[in-house]
Amino acid sequence: MDTVSLREKIAAFQAAYIRCIDRNELESWPDFFLPQCQYTVTTADNHRDGLAAGLIWASNRAMLQDRISALRHANIYERHSYRHIVGLPFIVDSQAQTASTETPFMVARIMQDGETSLYCTGIYHDVYDTSADTLRLQSRIVVCDSSRIDTLMAIPL
């Protein structure tokens, strides 16, 4: 696959991914990942220092599904929504069946009362499985620029 069509497929994937979250269709969110996958939200400091600790850590799709189930049925938090703005994906590496990318993002958080604030900025470090027509994430490491993260991180980034 040439670089331009791969970048277009990844950009379309990113658009569908953020649409799923921003429209609160979170039960579909785990479907963007392979059954055996990695999803981590961490800080730039931890990522730079090679520290595995993350604010969110999941090593398979079932853990992502459990997270959404807990979010819907067990967790108590003030209802809010996100609005993502993502940059263009940069292809770091492309092999026969995988592609590694970096994509910058900004997320605004909208509270029920309408208050809107810049919640998080950072970069997605992704590894995609490109072996099938439909892309899936093997790994998404969400690296937040700031180490000051609101303790209310209920919704995935």
Helix content: 10-25%
CATH second-level architecture: Roll
Please give the largest β-sheet: 7 strands, mixed
Question: What distance lies between the first and last C-alpha atoms, to the nearest angstrom?
Answer: 28 Å
Total strand segments? 7
Radius of gyration over all CA atoms, rounded: 15 Å
Uncertain segments are none
Described by the principal axes of the CA atoms, the overall outline is: globular
The arrangement of helices and strands along the chain is HEHEHEEEEE
Q: Specify the structural class.
A: alpha+beta
Q: What's the CATH class label?
A: Alpha Beta
* Proportion of residues in extended strands: 35-45%
Please, how many domains? 1
The count of helical stretches stands at 3
CATH topology: Nuclear Transport Factor 2, Chain: A
Average residue-wise pLDDT: 92
Describe the 3D structure.
This protein starts with a helix and ends in a 13-residue tail after the last strand. With 157 residues, it is α+β, with helices and mostly antiparallel strands. It is globular. The protein has one domain: Nuclear Transport Factor 2, Chain: A, CATH 3.10.450.50. It has three helices and seven strands, in the order αβαβαβββββ. The mean pLDDT is 92. Strands 1, 2, 3, 4, 5, 6 and 7 form a seven-stranded mixed sheet that branches.
